[in-house]
Design goal:
Number of helices: 15
CATH superfamily of the largest domain: SGNH hydrolase
CATH class of the largest domain: Alpha Beta
Strand content: 15-25%
Radius of gyration: 25 Å
Distance between the termini: 27 Å
Structural class: alpha/beta
Helix content: 40-55%
Shape: globular
Length: 454
């Protein structure tokens, strides 16, 4: 696995624009970061990975990541809901990914190929996108909100899968990405380039498997590995690599090496082993099983999840490692001399990290309920007279459910809205409580490492 990751690092270094050098940005303590976008953002998965990463790696930052995605949204929709749905949170940062719906994907169906009137509509769609995105960026900049532009995730027009291929959509998204770069250059904004990285990963992997896709089988919505790849690229383009000081010692000289995170007073040497007391500043990150295939696509472990234990000059043999009296594994003296990654083992740290990430998943569920309320209001109920969503919207949905002709797939969203709308204030309070708890349970705890020769 490690060898594969190193190969991917070398490959990605050669990709044009895949990892552009930008000054590091780690969100300040207590900052509010709104992720603005369409269904890919509303789904919340890549936002969840970023939130849980910050919770484990920057435990004192207490950053509030706020999902402002609306399924089906376009740039015009963002402008329409700017005040009540985004600015209401008083963000310091606005992270924008939009374009998948703006390009008007149905226009790229094979039956429209070469039709002049359709080609004209495609160009008009892109011009409208550019006009609206410029207005969005200007609005945030004028309100002194730091803007991060995420170049759109791709439409997969190269995978050989059953879903109809609207060929040309990904090229239109490239035009959106290029315009984002134009705005970034003009206003000195940070960008996160999903389009290039995901396109190149597809190109590389589809040589081996023509049905491979970094997004989903509908060619649009990324599955978990795609979302994790996006989270990786976001972190790589903002924070830069996260390098932890290693726990590094020389058994023969009884001294720390490589600017070790531990000092000599933190170590007790014995004839055939040693005991180390560690005070970590962060937690390891535990990658969800569903997202794990992404580890073969991007070098997340090397860049963001290395907690090295290295001991040189141990007598030759096999050693058992205990962390807080729990067995973490068995390793040879040669392996320990090269360094082992504690972040990938079952330790007290990874178990605490798992609890933090599980808590983030519960937060994501509450977030999903809140975003579904906004989605129903902005995409289904937005035409109500006087915008009286609270009363008229509920009445309309109640009548819809009472109507036997209502389609089966339309019922669950209506039922969910009717269930959660009366408890909206309670959901927001629940979110605040969970946000506070997140930064209570994520504090790294001291632990000890015992290395004993078997």
């Amino acid at each position: 696995m490690l060898r594969n990751l190193l190969l991917v690092v070398l490959c990605l270094a050669c990709l044009p624009g895949a990892l552009k050098a930008q000054p590091p940005l780690i969100f300040p303590k207590n900052s509010k970061v709104c992720f603005v976008g369409n269904s890919i953002t509303m789904a919340g998965e890549y936002v969840h990975y970023i939130r849980s990463y910050y919770a484990t790696k920057y435990p004192d930052r207490q950053v509030n990541f706020i999902n402002c995605g609306i399924s089906g949204d376009i740039t015009g929709g963002i402008l329409a809901r700017m005040q009540p749905d985004i600015m209401v949170h008083k963000p310091e940062y606005a992270v924008i990914m939009i374009g998948m719906n703006d390009v008007n994907r149905p226009l790229y169906a094979a039956k429209f190929k070469g039709v002049d009137s359709i080609e004209k509509k495609k160009k008009e769609a892109l011009e409208t996108y550019k006009k609206n995105l410029l207005e969005i960026v200007q609005y945030f900049v004028q309100n002194k909100i730091v803007v991060i532009l995420q170049k759109p995730s791709i439409y997969d027009q190269t995978a050989k899968i059953p879903q109809e291929n609207l060929f040309g959509v990904n090229d239109a998204l490239k035009a959106c990405a290029d315009y984002m770069q134009t705005l970034a250059n003009k206003y000195q904004l940070r960008t996160v380039d999903y389009w290039t990285l995901m396109t190149e990963i597809n190109k590389k992997m589809q040589v081996k498997d023509s049905s491979f896709t970094i997004v989903g089988k509908d060619r649009v919505h990324p599955a978990s590995p795609g979302h994790f790849t996006m989270a990786y690229q976001f972190l790589r383009s903002t924070t830069g690599k996260s390098i932890n000081a290693p726990v590094a010692l020389d058994f023969k000289t009884r001294k720390g090496i490589l600017k070790s995170v531990v000092s000599e007073r933190d170590v007790e040497f014995t004839k055939n082993g040693l005991k180390i007391w560690v005070k970590p500043v962060s937690l390891p990150y535990v990658v969800a099983t569903a997202a794990a295939p992404a580890l073969d696509l991007v070098p997340f472990t090397n860049d963001f999840n290395m907690e090295i234990l290295l001991v040189r000059s141990l007598p030759k043999g096999t050693y058992r490692i205990f962390i807080n009296d729990s067995t973490a594994g068995e390793f040879s003296s040669d392996q320990l001399a090269k360094g082992i990654n504690l972040a990938t083992l079952n330790t007290a740290g990874t178990r605490q990290a798992q609890q933090v990430i599980d808590h983030c998943l519960k937060m994501k569920a509450v977030e999903s309920d809140l975003r579904q309320l906004r989605h129903m209001e902005y995409r289904t109920l937005y035409k109500l007279p006087n915008g009286n969503i609270t009363d008229s919207g509920i009445a309309i949905l109640q009548r819809k459910l009472a109507d036997s002709s209502t389609k089966k797939n339309e019922r669950p969203p209506a039922e969910r809205y009717l269930k959660n709308k009366p408890r909206e204030a309670e959901l927001y309070k629940q979110w605040d409580v969970m946000q506070a708890k997140l930064y209570e349970i994520n504090k790294p705890q001291p632990y000890n490492i015992v290395i004993e020769k078997i």
